[in-house]
Amino acid sequence: GGSLTKLAYYSTVQHKVARVRSFDHSGKDIENEPLYEISVQEEITARLHFIKFENTYIEACLDFIKDHLVNTETKVIKATGGGAYKFKDLIEKKLGLKVDKEDVMTCLIKGCNFVLRNIPHEVFAYQKDSDTEFRFQTNHPNIFPYLLVNIGSGVSIVKVETEDKFEWIGGSSIGGGTFWGLGALLTKTKKFDELLQLASKGQHTNVDMLVKDVYGGAYQTLGLSGNLIASSFGKSTTADKEFSKEDMAKSLLHMISNDIGQLACLYAKLHNLDKIYFGGFFIRGHPVTMRTITYSINFFSKGEVQALFLRHEGYLGAIGAFLKGAEQDNPNQYSWGENYAGSSGLMSTSPDVYLMQRTRSGTFDMLEMDRLERPLVNLPLLKDPSTYIPDTVDLTDDAMARKYWLTCFEEALDGVAKRAAASQPDSIDAVERAEKFRQKYWNKLQTLRQQPFAYGTLTVRSLLDTREHCLNEFNFPDPYSKVKQKENGIALKCFQSVIESLDSLGWEERQFALVKGLLAGNVFDWGAKAVSDVLESEPQFGFEEAKSKLQERPWLEDSYSQWLERLKEGPPHKCALIFADNSGIDIILGVFPFVRELLSRGTEVILACNSGPALNDVTYSESLIVTERIAAMDPVIQSALREEKLLLVQTGSSSPCLDLSRLDKGLAVLVRERKTDLVIIEGMGRAIHTNYYAALKCESLKLAVIKNSWLADRLGGKIFSVIFKYEVPCK
């Protein structure tokens, strides 16, 4: 580009993963042996890296490419943008490669489609006076059609209809170059950033003629407010005083932004589009330009069209050029996830901070995307995927909640680092790596205190996910693996006696005992400090102790009577989808007796567990072993497995929370095939931090025990309050 070089490259990353597999127990006494063996293996995954360099550091960028990215098989490097012409000879000479130039607009749109599809909080609207400037939008499952307004030297307006179908529908020669050029003539300031700096301090009303300057107030007949600009630079024709550089820069910025805003608005209306994404070096995260563009669009469209910006706007061309080069291994056939551990977030856009960050070094911004093993899709049972928001509380908005949760994660950090080091007693560098993890996550938390919007909407889920990403980066794939192994073994020994006592109860009594068991199992959550403190200090704390902790009915959220009524009066559900939470007592003594009861009623069950580890949550591979053991003890489970009435699937997630818009495709297919008509979500992460307000097309049960006193207080309860939310969709 004109001032920045953006580099996109693909690498394979070797990292450790925890694997579990059953022992071969043939002819052995298995009474005192662990339930399964845990091994840590190396796995290779794909990662996309995107780095920005300033053009003044182009040599450093090329050195980086030469030292790390070029091998003997590399013959061609894909390039796009004005710099592909300007630096072509330098690149070819320094790297000994042929530069293959790609069309700028094609690359831009390919890149735009990629980030819209793969980064959930990519798009934001700019709000000047709110606590945080950025309002992130939920990704609509269908990203097309949209208008892309690219403001570089001039303005290009492109209508994008599908992955490959787009057309240039208009533009203007009055763009960023005009602002820069006229600004330089007016202020003698040659640098673009400095010009914006001047504009941010200026007062345009000293230079511009307003409606009230012409009419003495508002122009009521046409409904024009008195503060509206009637004529840009209008006062300079009559005043004989000198105008300040700041005021002239501000006036110029308003003039050009208003012009572009009106043009974009007219094209959007002409083509019946309500999404306009703005990009190009004129925007580049600058608050003054985003503010004026937003105001202009809002004014000319009367609030019907929204000006939208992209978190990774500067990378679009580079991503597109990379995708063009990688077409034989089409990256679009995979799902990708942002790696929070390796990405620098959206920087604060206050102009003073911004300049400081720009001069820090040659690379000042990075984005990493990890390829996910399986494609992710919406849960087919979401009532309206386009309005679904997984998270219950937006910490970007809620300053009090933000302060509490950031402090909560800071206070838990030493314990997490100790647990990580202790999980690898045979490793000589485990303590050192755990300290590096602690430092990295601490730094992320400090960034988020200053810039809560750095990675999109800040939520408890994003804080948990960032912690998991940082643990993985320092090769702690599953710090709770030994804890889970032990707890699964203990719980299995109690399974038969729990089933016997349930079977001895009358029908109605049994339904309540099953729900109570499910809730008591949910207490066993190492992610909650109130619980981990008890589990650390009282190893004998078990299922019965957990039941005694539960709030007595009526619960904080209590629709148990309606659920019981539904079971009594209604036909059996066709198929239930259950999202399980913790290992050990939770899944074995809480979830499985509940599953068994549903199966006995004639309901098929899909049991969904995490694909990868997070805290002490049960993983899909652990659930296979646990289910096999339970089936050996219980004929109901055994025959259900044999007849495929009980199906175990993975969610596609490695998070303690649950995003129903990013689930494993195989799970979605099964949900459709089996005509699922009941969804059960259990646990604080999946049913309270996320999905508390999720609307589904079928009946749902959301149940959890609140194991955090601040959250309990927020919801009007006490610690160990119970949420039992049975919802039936409106017909």
TrEMBL record:
Q: Which cofactor does it need?
A: Ni(2+); Mn(2+)
| Key word Magnesium present | no
**Positions of the Damage-control phosphatase ARMT1-like metal-binding domain:** 408-717
Superkingdom of the source species: Eukaryota
GO biological process entries: coenzyme A biosynthetic process
Give the molecular function GO annotations: ATP binding; hydrolase activity; metal ion binding; pantothenate kinase activity
Q: Where is this protein primarily located?
A: cytoplasm
> Where found in the cell?
Cytoplasm
Record Pfam families: ARMT1-like_dom (PF01937), Fumble (PF03630)
Tell me the InterPro entries matching this sequence. Answer: ARMT-1-like_metal-bd_sf, ARMT1-like_metal-bd, At2g17340_3_helix_bundle, ATPase_NBD, PanK_long, Type_II_PanK
Gene Ontology cellular-component terms for this entry are: cytosol; nucleus
Q: What does this protein do?
A: Phosphatase which shows a preference for 4'-phosphopantetheine and its oxidatively damaged forms (sulfonate or S-sulfonate), providing strong indirect evidence that the phosphatase activity pre-empts damage in the coenzyme A (CoA) pathway. Hydrolyzing excess 4'-phosphopantetheine could constitute a directed overflow mechanism to prevent its oxidation to the S-sulfonate, sulfonate, or other forms. Hydrolyzing 4'-phosphopantetheine sulfonate or S-sulfonate would forestall their conversion to inactive forms of CoA and acyl carrier protein.
Q: How does it assemble?
A: Homodimer. Interacts with PKM.
Q: Which family does it belong to?
A: In the N-terminal section; belongs to the type II pantothenate kinase family.
**What protein does this entry describe?**
4'-phosphopantetheine phosphatase
Question: What species was this sequence derived from?
Answer: Phalacrocorax carbo
The upper taxonomy is: Eukaryota, Metazoa, Chordata, Craniata, Vertebrata
